[in-house]
Design brief:
The protein contains 8 helices and 13 strands. It is α+β, with helices and mostly antiparallel strands. It folds into 2 domains: about 1-75 and about 245-260, no CATH class; about 80-220, Aminopeptidase, CATH 3.40.630. The strands form 2 sheets. Strands 3, 4, 5, 6, 7, 8, 9, 10, 11, 12 and 13 form an 11-stranded mixed beta sheet that branches. It has a two-stranded antiparallel ribbon with strand order 1-2. Strand 1 and strand 2 (about 5) form a beta hairpin. The longest helix has 17 residues, at about 95-110. It is elongated, with a radius of gyration of 21 Å. It starts with a strand and ends with a helix. About 25% of the residues are buried.
Length: about 260
């Protein structure tokens, strides 16, 4: 979609069995954009009767065509201040105290603890794979299936080398925590967050996340998306919940009744 000759929105979609499903997720779409896209699809794809959008941030709005909208998921988003000092000062008193306390405790018991930031081609595959292993171990311990298979992991690795960064925490030269993140412009989002549970007494996961946020602020980033799922540490680090919707747009009210699910 263009505005005054400039591309402002790119929506990738697939058409199958009378549906056009948008593949973009986790993005903000205004009423005018959804309406313009829907008119285009219904005009150029006469077999399509319903358009599906998933995990879209829409805000309160009404579309010009028949539609359904339901809460589907959420993201936790942190607007980054200009300086680390400003961010640290905005944290709650207890959070600031705990960060300092546990960081000191960790360094006292493990003097060789360090947390390092690597970007793009600097990322080492051994670190990358170690963070995936830690994440898989934590998810498997909950009786759940790890959602990253080897093929997807290889794709993440290539993408990380292009536009990603990692924060790697280590003790005794062994990876014990970290994040795998991606960056588009000044917008960052975490894809993998992991830590060794045997260091829970040191608040290691939250501490590593805090240090990662500080590094993105130094880099000049403006937004950090901490992903789905509600955890206390996200709000503790000042992320705000942003609801994501599922939207179904219909060609007509008749098609809405025929395909209402």
């Amino acid at each position: 979609m263009r505005f005054r000759g400039r591309i402002v929105t790119v929506l990738l979609f697939e058409v199958q069995s009378g549906r056009a499903d948008v593949l973009n997720e986790g993005i903000v779409l205004e009423t005018e954009t959804i309406d313009a896209f829907s008119r285009y699809v219904f005009k150029h794809f006469p077999t399509v009767y319903v358009i599906g959008l998933r995990q879209i941030d829409t805000g309160p709005q009404r579309l010009s065509m028949p539609f359904q909208r339901h809460d589907l998921s959420e993201n936790f988003v942190l607007q980054l201040p200009r300086t680390v000092e400003e961010y640290r000062a905005s944290l709650g008193k207890a959070t600031r105290r705990n960060i300092k306390r546990y960081h000191t405790k960790l360094l006292t018991e493990y003097p060789d603890f360090q947390c390092r930031y690597y970007s793009g081609a600097e990322i080492e595959q051994a670190h990358f794979e170690a963070l995936l292993d830690l994440s898989e171990a934590a998810i498997s311990a909950k009786g759940k299936v790890f959602g990253i298979d080897p093929a997807f992991a290889r794709g993440l690795w290539r993408l990380a080398r292009e536009c990603g960064f990692v924060m790697v925490a280590s003790i005794d030269n062994k990876v014990c925590a970290g994040l795998i993140c991606f960056r588009h412009g000044s917008y960052c989002f975490a894809h993998v967050v992991a830590h060794d549970r045997k260091y829970d007494a040191f608040w290691l996961g939250t501490l590593c996340y805090y240090l990662t946020i500080c590094e993105t602020i130094r880099h000049g980033d403006t937004v950090f998306n901490m992903g789905q799922l509600e955890y206390d540490y996200k709000t503790r680090l000042l992320a705000h919940k942003r609801n994501l919707d599922r939207i179904e747009v219909y060609r007509s009210y008749r098609h809405c009744l025929l395909r209402f699910d």
